[in-house]
Amino acid sequence: MGEQKGLTIQGNMATALGAKLSRPDVIPAYPITPSTLFPEKISEYIADGELDASMIRVESEHSAMSACIGASAVGARTCTASASQGIALMHEMLFIAAGMRLPIVMAVGNRAMSAPINIWADHQDTMASRDSGWMQFYAEKNQEGLDLMILAFRIAEDERVLLPAMVGIDGFVLTHTVEGVQAPAQEDVDEFLPPYDPPHGKLDPEEPMTFGSLGTPEYYQELKYDQTKAMDNTPEIIDEIFDEFEEKFGRNYNRITPYRCEDADIILLTMGSMTGTARAAVDEMREEGEKVGLAKLTVFRPFPSDLLKEIAGDVHGLAVVDRNISPGFGGAVFAECAGAFINEKKSPLMKNFIVGLGGREIFKKNFREMYEKTKKAVETGKVEKPVEWINMDEDVMR
Amino acid sequence: MSKVKITIAGINKKPGSSKEYKTGGWRTMKPEVDVEKCIRCLQCFDYCPDGAIKKTEDAIEFDLDYCKGCGICERECPVEAIVMKVEEK
Amino acid sequence: MSEDEKKELLASGHRMCAGCGEGTAMRTILNEAGPNSIATVATGCLEVTTTAFPQTAWEIPLIHAAFENAASVAAGIESALKQMDKKGETNILSFAGDGGTFDIGFQALSGMFERKHNVTHICLDNEAYMNTGIQRCSSTPYGASTTTSPKGKYSIGEDRPKKPIARIASAHDIPYAATACIGYINDLKKKVNKALEADGPAFLHVFAPCPTGWRHGSSDTIELAKLAVETGVFVLWEAEDGNICDLNVTYKPKERKPVEEYLKKQRRFAHLTEEHIEKIQKEVDEKCEEYGF
User: Burial letters for A211-220: b for 16+ Cβ neighbours within 10 Å, e otherwise?
Assistant: First the structure.
């Protein structure tokens, strides 16, 4: 096994490096803050001869995903990067990529949705595409961004999966922040990720086939069921590939990673870069004797209901922290967690906290507040306000 | 038509399988060719939207499995070798 | 294989309406392009009538993704094949109707042209959104009654002229752009070959009447296609390297027929008065003068 190389790089550089090590053939991309450094870095790799790939400098994100679909359908390993409005513009094509079972990988710099326009960290962009049929991975730090890119290709291209995947790193907090990472050696990535040869078919004049058939009411539902079943089958495959990755590269990934949860009464559930702050808050509270744990969600789709129930099935309170809002309900992750416990005889009381929208900072004290509020609900046995917004500036509220 | 098993992503690996679907049933008028008059200019062949005209050694013939009876061949035949007749069902 | 035994690359059994001009166009184009081709198709009549699972009328590889992006899907295919050294002589064809070319697909098309992908985009123009039920498009000609530009007490139907899409395409300085018509099969075949031989993007604007949308008899399709050209309503030309100022008119009618002959055969124009027809005639005369005939 080759030696891993220590680098100090920004998050976008880490996902771009993860992509480069995965040897993509085609990268159609359109610049959008905060993911722009990804296509810039890929362009640089190609310009310097470090990556033998074709970069298509498309005229829109819609065409980026469209070109990904065309390229993937002829058997090319294909990836792109986007964020926010860009993901919204390609929304239509996300469903089509998944419906055609094309293992495209997208690096996302998670960012808020307009209006008002805002370029900072927020998970609204990818939450809005949660039903598109893509797998969704979220990184806590740059190292995870790098590793998850390689993992995303490997999982997406698995014959049992064949679904596209997106890897989210928080806008600016990760995309533009320099951190140390270990870069795996190319030969090891090559071993871990063999060249892509579509097992289900490709566009080839030697063996003509039609992709993107019209699905009439006679067949549509079965075709969608078949696609959904593929997603339903992925948890075991993801676990298997995460294990293989750990064996090879020494870094451990889980769909949900528990932290100090063993004897916890209350668990905070986080996703993305906020997890580091939450962990520090949990450590502080543990010092103070509070029985609090943390669960980090790495795989949002397929949603790991099984692991969540294992980790949080016996606790009294679950505080779900969402960096997104579905107006009229609450946070998207909260909805999933609530859904996970449906029909369970035993379920923790659940509170939902909306934080960090549009790049609003998230502090340790915010997690302490969430814990306190959840604790109070547990003590009184009543959840008065299931959804609460945290770190609001009351002075500017009208 | 009887249903078939679905394929992954609905990918269709049977090129030209539309031939299983006979569009001849749509027809209300049916073309007939007078092979004596036919000069085999093949304009009807070129213009037929349905590929329902086959070339023979010295004329043409209709593939009534697919001919929808549009009547373009009759209209475009320069020697009036084709006539449309009411389809008897 | 002899010419007569050549396999038809658009198989019979497709569900296009009787007398559909797209059927004639597609048979001609695909047979001319040959089996070493890969196609993308925009959502629309062509896609709906040829790809209903579990059947396909396509004998060449085809991908349908969405309405507005046939050209960008094709661009992805072309780049991928080149990158993987598999492009060879394979033709990459991008098909869309007028809606998928003039309107919603225009941005993707313009991008594909500008990036110089070796893709031939073919627009099958029947002058309205036929698949959704005859709605007005920027391809709809002046005076045509459609479901969203209906004739009425205060309306003559569509009140704007047709967008000159092939000239706009050519203005991207692409190696080859041409207009063609299913009434002139040999001209169409020649242009298909020239487009495919072009070193870079090519555009073919193929005029194909629609009995359902234009409300004419199914047997009138070819006659109307010819009348459009013989009256000067639709001009057959080609331009190389964006040279629209010096384009080559590939067919000049010896004596132009009055537009009335063309208009009267279609119920979408049935409401037009003599004055309207005179106005259209005048505009066609001016246009033909521009084209030099």
Answer: bbbbbeeebe
Residues A243 and A273 reside in one and the same domain: no
Q: What is the CATH number of the domain that holds C15?
A: 3.40.50.970
Which amino acid, one-letter code, is at C234?
F
The total number of structural domains in chain C stands at 1
Q: Running along chain A, 398 residues long, what does each successive block of 10 average in pLDDT?
A: 94 98 98 98 98 98 98 98 98 98 98 98 98 98 98 98 98 98 98 98 98 98 98 98 98 98 97 98 98 98 98 97 98 98 96 98 98 98 96 96
**Interchain CB contacts (distance < 8 Å): A and C:** 162
Same domain, A261 and A213: no
CB proximity A213 to B under 8 Å: yes
Ordered domains of chain B (ranges, CATH):
31-89 (3.30.70.20)
Using a CB–CB cutoff of 8 Å, tell me whether C218 touches chain B: yes
Residue C158 CA to residue C143 CA, distance in Å, equals 5
What CATH number has the domain bearing residue A139?
Answer: 3.40.50.970
d(CA A307, CA A278): 20
- Which residues from B are below 8 Å from C12, CB to CB? 18-19, 23, 50-52, 63, 65-66
> Could you tell me if A168 and A215 lie in one domain?
yes
- CATH number of A324's domain: 3.40.50.920
Contact C71, C96 (CB under 8 A): yes
Chains contacting A (3+ CB pairs below 8 angstroms): B, C
Q: What ipTM was predicted for this assembly? A: 0.97
